[in-house]
Design goal:
Blueprint lengths: L30 H7 L4 H22 L6 E2 L1 H27 L8 H4 L11 H12 L3 H9 L4 H28 L6 H40 L3 H24 L4 H23 L2 H7 L3 H17 L6 H26 L2 E2 L7 H4 L9 H8 L8 H6 L12 H26 L2 H8 L2 H4 L3 H10 L9 H10 L12 H16 L4 H36 L11 H23 L5 H29 L3 H4 L3 H23 L7 H14 L7 H42 L24 H11 L16
Antiparallel strand pairs: 1-2
Helix pairs in contact: 2-3, 3-7, 3-17, 5-13, 5-17, 6-17, 7-17, 7-25, 7-27, 8-12, 8-23, 8-24, 8-25, 8-29, 9-10, 9-11, 9-13, 9-23, 10-23, 12-23, 12-24, 13-17, 13-22, 13-23, 15-25, 15-27, 17-22, 22-23, 23-24, 25-27, 25-29, 27-29, 28-29
Length: 761
Amino acid sequence: MAAGSRSSRSRAGDNSPLTQDPSLPPTAVSDAELERESRWTWQKVVLWVAIALLGGLAWVMLAVVRGETVNAIWFVFAAVCTYLIGYRFYSKVIQKFIARPDDRRATPAERKQDGKDYVPTDRRVLYGHHFAAIAGAGPLVGPVLAAQMGFLPGTIWIIIGVIFAGAVQDYLVLFFSMRRGGRSIGQMARDQLGRIGGTAAIIASLLIMIIIVAILALVVVNALGESPWGVFSVSMTIPIAIFMGCYLRWIRPGRITEISIIGFVLLMFAIIAGGWVGGSEWGQAVFHLDRTTIAIGIIIYGFIAAVLPVWLLLAPRDYLSTFMKIGVIVMLAGAIVLVRPEIEVPAFTVFAETGLGPVWAGPIFPFLFVTIACGALSGFHALIASGTTPKLIEKERQTRFIGYGGMLMESFVAIMALVAAISIDQGIYFAMNSPAAVTGGTVEGAVAFVNSLGLTGVEITPNMLTEAAANVGEESVVSRTGGAPTLAFGIAHIMSGIDGGALMAFWYHFAIMFEALFILTAVDAGTRVARFMLQDSIGTFIPKFKEVSWRPGVWISTAIMVAGWGAILILGVTDPLGGINTFFPLFGIANQLLAAIALAVVLAIVAKRGKSYAKWLWIIIAPLAFTAVITITASFYKIFSPVPQIGYWANHVRYRDALASGDDALGTPEVMEAVIRNTGVQGTLSIIFVVLAIIVIIASVFVTIKAVRDGGGEEREDEIVASRRFAPAGFLATKTEKAIEKQWAALPPSEDPVDWKARGH
């Protein structure tokens, strides 16, 4: 049966005939059992009514009953209850009417199993792997920066946005990539949108990936700059990860629990030892590095990590970081429930009205929705969901748990980051996140600037900033931009409510290492994905590049991508206006434009599936339309706004004219030349990104309209092959799934096509 033909469509709900090997136990739960399990009982009704009532109460306390303070515990309840409802109801609508998975159908991991790229992976392990890959700086940094606007706008966008936008994108891109052998979003765009739309999508994906990885690295640089404790602890994670990889490869293969304990102990030692090293004279001499030096180190690291075998560095650190990510966020949520800190930040600050805040400039619409990217919606995820993950899925129904559920976990990370940021004193928050250009990088300058903002109830003193720095074991907290230091300070502040502040320095640097691990995972994963994309693109003209085992192609492609994001990183590090303050809006816009491109591709795919799908297209059209509006509007602001704090070209002209006239009010000639260069790069990239995205969206609209009129189109799905294995769909196996697992466990090894017992079920 030819891939892509109308007759090849085979999905649950389409009553498709797939003949299973009669000698094997069931490879899927029957439709009748699925229907029976979904029936409502009075216990289920009581449970979901209770969840809805608790979630509703939490939202009322946050959005309606707002006094001088609000208890942080309501953020946890509002988030968790809304996630549970979204996953149980909305994701099932998407699964039933759009995805229509069929577990009787073999996935690419089963069909193409090669022990390298295509490997059927336990859904729980894969969930961790996928989450580690998608969760970079975005859910940590964006909410921290958005706290400038108040707590309510960010909270609504993070929680509601993920239900109807972010998780929808992640789930559907993952599912349709899996149906197409793990094709990238660029390849799917080329297949679905034609030459022009596909080419625009590929170019946009490559350029946007450069920006995304550069800003991820910039956050790490800003977190570690002039921090010997942080530099030492984070540096130690590399040899620890390499040791873990070698341990599992040669010393004790398969001993996951054993090496996990060893890795955790070594990480804790790295943090504690960092305090000793940072306090010593030789530690200060060796590890007290400026931001440019750290940036160069990360560029070198990015290249090496991307070309090394996955098992040596990436996989073990991926595992370590996943462990730490989920553990830290759950720990933080628990601490919030125990400590119940009172939030004094208003629901809306004055900067939500003026749009001219010191952390970033721009009106709340559209800039809030591009500042908070990864926690609510992220185009970067589409690259991961169409990268390694679809090649590892055991069964089609698992895509809901991994794609939709993985994004919900990232959203929870974002909410915890927001709560951590708003739990600290507002004065300290603005002192940490305002660029050195306005604070002078000094305590006195920060005090004068923050107090000049005229914020109600905000009055800081030099002693407050000096004491804050001493409490966390740092020389200064002034202008520690990038979001990561603020989040670390917030985590330390909340945890100090449990231990009385005795371990505040430990918690701060623990959080810094946690964040750096978080982000570095995304840096090298992003570099690797970008390299694959570039190899595929160059391979169109030089076929040899498509061979992933051809080392010269690997090195050349990696070097090109690292050089691209490394150049942007250096520009950000040396930016006189504060790199994160000027580059992060570009990161957010680029990220959301990529999300619009991904949703546009998904829209075309679903429209081509046939008439029965047409009435459900609104599930994709709604987030696509919203994303297109906010990103195009934000791009136009950055390109055309006459306000220098907002418009890249307005600021470019302002500094260019000042330099030409000899006016030194804006800084030295070197400073002005740097601003002119950076704003020129930012403005040019903004134009390129928005033009490419508009081309892709227009192409998608035309393809979709044609497909709806024709009642479908060519889908280009892979050949249908009957599955010869079984695995549960969710984190916990249902009663029916456990019964089928027992049948597979009873098979003699000689009759088991996948050596089921050896897989550890």
